Amino acid sequence: MHSPTRFGNQYFRLLTWLEWKPKKLDNGVLQFVHVDEDLGEELMMLPTDMALLTDPSFKEWVVRYADDKEVFYADFAKAFAKSMELGIQRDAQGKVVNSVNLKDEYHSAPKKANKPGLSNASNEETEPLRMDNERFRARP
To answer: What is the SS3 assignment for 101?
Structure first.
């Protein structure tokens, strides 16, 4: 079953397992489609999607991710974490240690807690908002 809003490796599976045919739209744009005859549904891929299959160095990863979602999940987690940190290096306490990120008085956000939920401790950034919220809730 096609689940476009669920995170997984389905994109890679669809890209490699289905037959994609070129389709030129009325405005001249090229797309690739797969028509599920049983359901009467049409799926679409862009030329950039299909290029992943024609380039051998990309195709290797597309096939690997289609065949093993755990490999995809692990690689995605590493890439996502790296993109969130943008090269920031932290010590064991979560403080920024590379000076390039302290240049021009830039300080990154504090490292998030390992557990979900809010911390009971407040800091100088959240305290004014907390006090405003308390005053708002206490109003008559």
So the answer is: helix
